[in-house]
Each structure stands twice: as structure tokens, then as C-alpha cells.
Amino acid sequence: MISWLDIRNALLSGKPVLIFDSIEREAETDMVFYAGTIDYKKIAYLRKYAGGQICFVSGRLFREALDLPFLQDLIIKHPSIRELATRKPRYGDPPAFNIWLNHVATKTGISDSDKALTIKALSEIAALIYKGYMEEARDRFLKEFYAPGHVPILTSRGLANRRGHTELSVALSLITGLTPSIVIAEMLDEGQSLPYEDAKRFAIRNGLFFIDGVDIVAEAEKRGYLND
Amino acid sequence: MISWLDIRNALLSGKPVLIFDSIEREAETDMVFYAGTIDYKKIAYLRKYAGGQICFVSGRLFREALDLPFLQDLIIKHPSIRELATRKPRYGDPPAFNIWLNHVATKTGISDSDKALTIKALSEIAALIYKGYMEEARDRFLKEFYAPGHVPILTSRGLANRRGHTELSVALSLITGLTPSIVIAEMLDEGQSLPYEDAKRFAIRNGLFFIDGVDIVAEAEKRGYLND
């Protein structure tokens, strides 16, 4: 039995959890923090122990409230490179990337403290949106960031449409009663993704929750979170 | 005296060099490989010892031959987020980002081997362009990649217009007689950019060239490479 309450408490206390998507998809494990708890030490931890791209993740409501396009939609409108955006990755899903940005108060956007600053501010925007303050959220969003920058925003298409780490971590937030406002990075080994068994061992050794995507999908289905 | 020939040989033999931009700009050191020599071990080395965003860099000719937009130009055309693209980073320069992409043969695009594959293919496109095979380069480019992906392309605006690591590494390629086809990542410390003295110490300890941006600018000026 998975204790969603224990997972909620782990995330709220600033611990990462590990999420494996599925053997039929990327077969990758992502390290996942609750964005509201992020600081530069956690960004450095993600760099060191995950190694993949550090992304801010939120849900469909975040995208709609801010009227964010998917990057694919911007590229497809540009004639000279549109062909590049007509193809999908080999695992079949469309990319979840919206835009890359930095907070205006960052120095270059790339250091751990700068990334933490950008992500922390994005988590405040997400909190406003999920509490219903759409206009205030949109005002702050347009004033406080510049693009392109170094933190990608990924937003969910809902588990009914896509079963990536973006959708899984948004569903996990909703199941555990948290704002969809998450930081993820893929766990890498030298050369390849960290194999399933190694990711599981990392979780056990470090006292972290390891969650199988299939369990999130089942619970999200039960609770009606397949489209968020 | 800087030996540009020795730097050329280091790059061609697959060793990284370190480039410091300027105390008046980012004040950051980037680790730089020649893209033609890249493999998954070098990507893992960049992740471990640099830590910043791993980017493919080329020159103005690359951008023009492929008719690549800057990402800023795509964002500014999208009404709901255009304001984000009207601002500059605090160090004053416009971003050098074009698009993020993956090679179609990658699995997810994010592992070291996948990134090496994408970058290796980009280096072949750059080689075609700088040898004058524009049409073949453009055909291959549009067929072999999809976007958005995980490797950003940065292209130079010329040192006369911008003095970032993008422009410095393109000028370094030209000075050393190499194709502008480079992989860079910022050197990070926990929390902040790796301080100048620490980056210099890293170079000495590992037998790597450490190059000051100001020396590249002076040499590029002498040889007429300020707009490439």
C-alpha cells in the first residue's frame, strides 16, 4: 500500500521522491522536488545525483491561466524550421516544453542560486493560479521573467493524453493535495539513463520514496485527475 | 605568448579548453570541446566537471545557411508572452539561443549518448556549411532532427556585437583554423559560478589551456573575425 500522505509529507519537508515512468515509454526515473521548497542546495543535489535537465513543471491550469504556448507551436509557425516540429520523439509523445526563462533578478540564470530564484518565483505564480488569482499571476509572470532563459517550463497535457514525468508529477501533486508546482530532473548514469534497479537502490539507500508511474495512473484514474 | 597552434591541437585531440569571458560581463568560465571530437564520455565529463547547460555553438554562417531564427524572435511574435522577450539579462546581452533539438535516432535525447549523437550530427552539418555545401546541409538538418529537444543551438552575433562565450568560442575556432562547431558548458560551483581562481586552478591541475576572453578579442580583431 502506498501512503500518499507520507509522500506528501516527504515533499513538503523538502525531500525528493523518485518517479519511474514506464518500461513501455522512456523507462526513465526522474528525481522530483516540490518547487515551493527549492533552494540552491537542492538544485546542486539535482545536478549531482540526478544529472538531467532541471525543469519546472505545472499543470494545464497554469498553462491556460498564463496563455503559454508549447514551444512546438511557436516553431511550427516559422516556415524555415517548421519541419523539425512535425516529428515526435521515438517514445511517441509530443514534447511538454513551453518556454525557457529566467527571473529578472538573476545574474546569468545558470548558477544553482539563480535557478532556485527562478523556480521559487514560478512556484509563487503557480500558488496564485491554483488559488484562483489569475490576473495577479499573469501580471507577475509577465513582469518578473525574461525569455529565453535557462529554466524550462513543462506543462501537463493530462495523463489521458500523455504519460510522461510532467503528467505523472502533476497527478502526484493533486493526489497528495499539493499545488502542481514541481521540479524534476532525469536520473542519469554515465552514457545512459540510470537503470531501474539502480534508481530503486538509490531510493532505498537514501530513504526516499520510489514511485512507479503505473501506481500514479491508477490512483489518478480513481480520483478523476486524468486531464489536469 | 599564447600558442594558438597548441590550442588547436588540444581541441583536435579531444581535450577541453577553458574560456573566461570578462570580469565586466558574466565573469564565468566555460568548458569548451571541439564538437567533432564529442562522445558520451566527454558529455559525462562536462556534466561532472562543468555542470552548466551543455550547448552546441556555431557561427553566423551556420545560422544564415539554415535560416535559423533566434528563439527570442519566435517568442516576440507570440502576443501572450512577447513581453518576456523584450527584456535582456542583467549582464546586458541578448540571448544567443536559437532552438533546442534532438537527433531523430535518439531515444529520449537526454542521456550522454543521446546528447553526443545529436551534437555529432550537428558538427557534420557545420562541416558541410563551412565547406560550402549549403543545400546538402539544409536538407540533412531538416530531415535528421526534431524540436523542441534537449540540445540548445547557440549562434554567434559576432564579437563586434556581443562578447559572450558563444562569440568567443566561434572566434577561437576561426583563429585556430577549425570549423566553428563547439560544445560548451558553464563551470559551476555549489550555488554559484566557479570563481576565476578556482577555474584557473582546475586548468593547471588537469593540464588544460585557460584562455582569457580579452586575448581572444584582441586576436580576432587583428585577424578580422569580429563579425563571424
From TrEMBL, chains A, B:
EC top class, as a word: lyase
Protein name as catalogued: 3,4-dihydroxy-2-butanone 4-phosphate synthase
Pfam families (alphabetical): DHBP_synthase
GO molecular function terms listed in the Swiss-Prot or TrEMBL record: 3,4-dihydroxy-2-butanone-4-phosphate synthase activity; metal ion binding
Entry annotated with the keyword Calcium: no
Gene Ontology CC, one term: cytosol
Keyword Metal-binding: yes
Key words, A-Z: Lyase, Magnesium, Manganese, Metal-binding, Riboflavin biosynthesis
Entry EC no(s): 4.1.2.-
InterPro entries per the UniProt record, alphabetical: DHBP_synth_RibB-like_a/b_dom (IPR017945), DHBP_synthase_RibB (IPR000422)
GO biological process, one term: riboflavin biosynthetic process
NCBIfam families the UniProt entry points to: PRK05773.1
Pathway where this protein functions: Cofactor biosynthesis; riboflavin biosynthesis
